[in-house]
Specification:
The chain is mainly alpha-helical. It has one domain. The chain has a two-stranded antiparallel sheet. Helix 2 packs parallel to helix 5 and helix 4 runs antiparallel to helix 5. It is flat.
Length: about 190
């Protein structure tokens, strides 16, 4: 019963099929998969620890606490997006192999490993940056010297941090476009006045 009969008449065991599927992916593929799951658990752990006020300094400083929470939400978003992309690539490649199609294989070189492993860290930075820029905007628009953010506002910032992490590429493209506009505008005013 452990043998399978194919239409071309060849027989193989399930053990041989499993070994051929395992041998088809390099070790880097497995490293990425495990690391992405660990990033998700790390982000969730950070969120729970900060939410439960387990770190005394973060329990007393609301600004720092919210910064770390936004960073953790950004990391969670980026890790989930990277995991989604990772599994989509694996499923597409596996389906092509199973159906006998000669599809393109994924390049698991050091560059792609670096991409997958640093994406959640970049998401954490962008989540914290989203909070910083939003908080600065609130402070500039406020008449009061110290403006407090409501609980609903914080939840909105957490969602913004998550989305910033989830769509790292789009956020970086938008930041680049904004910075080009700012620096081109300042370059025109400086050269026009000379």
């Amino acid at each position: 019963m452990s043998e399978t009969q194919y239409t071309d008449g060849s027989e193989t065991t399930r053990k041989e099929e499993t070994q051929s599927m395992k041998a088809s992916y390099p070790i880097g593929c497995y490293v990425v998969g495990v690391a992405l799951v660990m990033y998700i658990f790390l982000a969730l752990t950070i969120l729970v620890v900060i939410h439960l006020n387990a770190v005394p300094i973060l329990a007393t400083r609301e600004l720092l606490r919210t910064h770390f929470l936004c960073g953790a939400f950004g990391m969670l978003g980026a890790a989930m997006a990277s995991s989604r992309k990772y599994y989509k690539v694996l499923i597409t490649e596996s389906a092509a192999k199973t159906s006998g199609l000669n599809g393109s294989t994924t390049d698991w070189s050091l560059g792609w490993l670096f991409y997958y492993l640093t994406r959640p860290l970049l998401g954490a930075v962008l989540g914290a940056l989203a909070y910083t820029l939003t908080f600065i905007g609130f402070q500039v628009l406020s008449k009061l010297p110290t403006e407090e953010i409501s609980d609903r506002g914080r939840y909105l910032l957490y969602a913004l941090a998550f989305v910033s992490g989830f769509s790292v590429s789009h956020v970086l493209d938008r930041l680049e476009a904004i910075s080009k506009e700012i620096f081109q505008a300042s370059g025109r005013t400086n050269s026009g006045g000379s």
